[in-house]
Amino acid sequence: MTHDGPRAAPWRRHPVLVDAVAVTLVLLLDLLVAPRATGEPAPRGGDLVLVVLALALVPLRHRWPVPALVLTVLAAGVALLLRGIETVAVLAPLAALYTVALRGDRRTTVLAWAATSGVLALTGTTGTAQDGVWQRALPVLPWTAVVAAVGDGLRNRRAYLAAVEERAVRAERTREEEARRRVAEERVRIARELHDVVAHHIAVVSVQAGVAQHLLEAQPAAASEALAHVRSSAAAVLEELGDILSVLRQPGEGGEGAASAPAPGLGRLDALVASFTAAGLEVGWSLHGQPRALAPTVDLVAYRVLEEGLTNALKHGTGTAHLSVEHRASTVVLRVVNRVPVLVGVGPGDGGSRAPGTGSGHGLLGMVERAAAVGGTVRAAPAPDGSFVVEAELPARQAAVT
């Protein structure tokens, strides 16, 4: 994580300029103020050259930290040999050591600290013969240790903040991906609902319209009844489409009374059978086992599987079907069986009958996907006796008690 962007502070955007200004101030203090305050003479000649050289190397630390440290340590070491520990040249390797600790790793920091403190301590003691020189030179060790520790600690803090920021970005990306996945799943669910609703009612409309056309002249009353079924089915499909598509509305669009109807389930089996009976399909049905309330998702899938199976029988069968629901210990088995017409030569203009599954296949595929979504299975295939069987086995998950 860096702070060199457009919003960073000016001293972070121009570190070399900041170092140049700081070095200039230190030199002015060393030449003009320090001699009056301490009584020590200002550096002259070779001493001044070494001090200027050591401090002038400080800005190099931003681009070449380790070479800058080596050069400043050498310049400061020579200055200590000539002038003693009073020289301000020792500030240069301290600044370079801080940068090495800030940008390197722990091992590099320890090695740099050991080399820097060792050279500065040895040259500081060797360069003078005054009493108590060790007591005056050895403080270089803790000073260099403090500088290295500060740089290392700040590096660890920056690494921690960078890791936190990365985790936050990753978490945000994960939330966005999860939201997109849920939107895609919802779209698939709505598409399945639309298919189930439209396929059932349009099949009824198609059959009843054909009946009305056939009976329009010979039996007007029967034709009128068939057209009434067409109108009823059309109204039903519009109502159910409105319920399904209402989930796409923004909050508040539908008004206070725009609540959707509850999702269908096996509790509406009577109405489902009645709608197909009215459409001209003779449906016999049976119930086995002890009925129990199912989880809403399983209940909806069970209803849609039976609806699709009966729609298939209405479109492709001989006009009769048998439906059965069997409640077992841990599963619910649904079965729709219908006779299919005997196939004759199927070709252009020969009027042969079509067996179930010769259409687009989206209905059967939708049943399989729905069942798989709740952990169940669907099998749809012709039987040896000439009938067509749709059989589903779904887990009998109980509805939550509220």
Could you explain how this protein is built, in words?
- This protein has 402 residues and is of the alpha+beta class.
- Among the domains are: 10-138, no CATH class; 264-342 and 353-402, Histidine kinase-like ATPase, C-terminal domain (Heat Shock Protein 90).
- Helix content is 60%, strand content 10%.
- The protein contains 12 helices and 5 strands.
- The chain has helices spanning 10-13, 15-38, 45-56, 65-83, 91-103, 106-126, 133-137, 140-215, 220-245, 269-278, 296-316, 362-373; strands at residues 282-288, 320-327, 331-339, 377-382, 387-395.
- The protein has a 5-stranded mixed β-sheet.
- Strand 2 (320-327) and strand 3 (331-339) form a beta hairpin.
- Helix 4 packs antiparallel against helix 5 (91-103), helix 5 runs parallel beside helix 8 and helix 8 (140-215) runs antiparallel to helix 9.
- The chain is rod-shaped, with a radius of gyration of 44 Å.
- Residues 250-259 and 343-360 have low confidence and may be disordered.
Short overview:
This protein has 402 residues and is α+β, with helices and mostly antiparallel strands. It has helices at residues 10-13, 15-38, 45-56, 65-83, 91-103, 106-126, 133-137, 140-215, 220-245, 269-278, 296-316, 362-373; strands spanning 282-288, 320-327, 331-339, 377-382, 387-395. Helix 5 (91-103) runs parallel beside helix 8.
Which features does this protein show?
402 residues, alpha+beta, Heat Shock Protein 90, 12 helices, 5 strands, 60% helix, 10% strand, phosphoprotein, ATP-binding
Topology overview:
Blueprint: H1 10-13, H2 15-38, H3 45-56, H4 65-83, H5 91-103, H6 106-126, H7 133-137, H8 140-215, H9 220-245, H10 269-278, E1 282-288, H11 296-316, E2 320-327, E3 331-339, H12 362-373, E4 377-382, E5 387-395
Parallel strand pairs: 1-2
Antiparallel strand pairs: 2-3, 3-5, 4-5
Transmembrane segments: 16-33, 45-62, 68-98, 110-127
GO molecular function: ATP binding; phosphorelay sensor kinase activity; protein dimerization activity
InterPro entries: DUF7134, HATPase_C_sf, Sensor_HK_TwoCompSys, Sig_transdc_His_kin_sub3_dim/P
